[in-house]
Every structure is written in C-alpha cells, then in structure tokens.
Design goal:
Elements: H1 19-24, H2 26-32, H3 35-42, H4 45-61, H5 66-90, H6 92-98, H7 112-131, H8 135-151, H9 162-178, H10 192-211, H11 214-219, H12 225-233, H13 235-259
Helix pairs in contact: 4-5, 5-7, 5-8, 7-8, 8-9, 9-10, 10-12, 10-13, 12-13
C-alpha cells in the first residue's frame, strides 16, 4: 500500500480541486490511502450495507427478535465484505487496465496480500457467526457465500451469468427460515414462493449491477445476458427495465411475506 510520507512529491489535484488546497491537506490523501479505508472501499460497502440491512429487516418482519436480527445483520455484512474483496482480487488486472474508479487493489493503494489476509480473517469470523443462528441456517448461508465466490470466477462472462445470483439470493430466505438463536436452533422450511421470488430478485440485482460496466465488458468480449440485452435495448432502457423488474419482485416478496409468511 502506498502512503504519503514526508519527502514525497506533492500529489496531483483531482479534477476540480485546487493544487494548493491539495498540497495544504496531505492528511486527506493519507486517510484515503490508509489500510482501513482502502479495505472498506474494496469491500463494496454500499452493496454490502443494503444487502445486510434488507436481510436483517426481513428477519425482523418474520418475527425474529432484535438480537437475532442483529446477528443476521453482522453475519451478512461480513459475508458481503468477503464477496467484495474476492471480486476485486479476481478483477484487479482487469480493473487496472480499464482504470475502474474506486478500486484500491487495482490502483495499488491496497496490496493484494493485505486483502487476502482480511478475507481469510473474515472467513474465520463468518463461520461461527453463521452457525450461531443454527447449524442448518449457518450452512445455508455459507453455501450462499460459496455460490457467490464461484460466481466471481465462473459463468459470469456468458449467458448463464444470472444463475449464481439467483442461487445465492434463493438461499437467503432459507437462511432466515431455518434460523433461530444458538447453534442448536432449528426452524422450518421456507415458502417455495418466497424462494422463487428471492431468486428472481437476485437476477434483477445482477442486471442492475452489470449496467455500470457494460462498456468495459463489451471491450473484453464478454457475452453475458445483461450485455446481450443491453446491445438491443441500450443502457438507459435496460436500466429502466431492470429497476422495474426488481421493484416488482420486491413488491411480490412483500405480498408473500404479509400473506403466507416466510416459513411453511
């Protein structure tokens, strides 16, 4: 990881930033280049926070006590950080070639070894966190992580790219339905309709996430489904269609949850 130390040359100002102001505030670069901040950025924090809050909220709506929902929140936050770090590690050469912004591993501000170390520590943490809500629930959540990690390296470039997203999201209601508190907790199977709707939501999220990288993916010769549809519809229309699809699926999930519930 590169940091600004005494004797380093003044950094170039970012677009719209005055050079003198940049030189007068070296602490901003030191903070931005610090290991905690670069690890946070590489963890895809916005996606991770939204996913964790949504699943924790679903746990509360399903009648889980606050302490269980809090455990779910922490578990999913750690799991999402693992997926984010792994994604940036896998894509570091590609991100560097395309100069993708907000990729500290690719731009050299975060060493790959540091990210791997954080990922392994997070794995050691997420296993007991997952199992703390029940063995069955924990195994199902860990399975969703495995699917997500595999999705970072296989199927993502071709027409079957939605499958890992659908599979990992389908496991979320299973994780919640079987969960409780304590390693011996055992719940009930989830509603099939809830699992199907969650899988469809995963497909919608995949499309929404893919839109921002369509140009780079096209340059690299990828043929995954969002890119195929993006060529036909255009990025703007694809965004509208994907957002509408995801919104409808969320509404369906709410209806299912309020009528038949999460568990069978």
């Amino acid at each position: 990881m590169s940091t600004l130390t005494q004797g380093d040359p003044p950094r170039a100002a970012s677009p719209g930033e005055d050079v003198d102001e940049a030189d007068r505030q070296p602490w901003r670069r030191r903070l931005w280049d610090s290991t905690p901040v670069t690890l946070l950025v590489a963890a895809h924090p916005r996606q991770g926070a939204v996913t964790a809050l949504a699943i924790a909220a679903a746990a509360l709506v399903a009648g889980r006590p606050a302490r269980e929902a809090g455990t779910v929140l922490l578990t999913v936050l750690v799991g999402q950080a693992i997926l984010g770090w792994h994604n940036d590690l896998v894509d570091r050469e590609r991100d560097s070639r395309h100069r993708t912004p907000h990729k500290p591993i690719a731009d050299g501000r975060l060493e790959a070894g540091t990210a791997w170390y954080a990922l392994v520590v997070a794995l050691l943490l997420v296993i007991p966190l997952s199992i703390s809500t029940g063995v069955t629930a924990g195994v199902l959540y860990l399975a969703s992580l495995v699917v997500g990690i595999l999705g970072n390296v296989v199927l993502r470039r071709g027409r079957l790219s939605p499958l890992p997203w659908a599979a990992s999201f389908a496991l979320y209601p299973c994780y919640l339905s079987y969960g409780g508190f304590g390693g011996s907790a055992e719940g009930d199977p989830p509603q099939v309709a809830m699992v199907v709707a969650a899988a469809l939501l995963g497909v919608g999220v995949h499309f929404l996430r893919a839109i921002w990288g369509l140009v780079e993916d096209d340059q690299d010769g990828w043929t995954y489904l969002p890119l195929v549809l993006g060529r036909r519809l255009g990025a703007t229309r694809l965004l509208v269609v994907s957002a509408t699809f995801a919104g409808v699926v969320v509404a369906v999930l709410v209806v299912i949850g309020s009528t038949v519930g999460l568990r069978q």
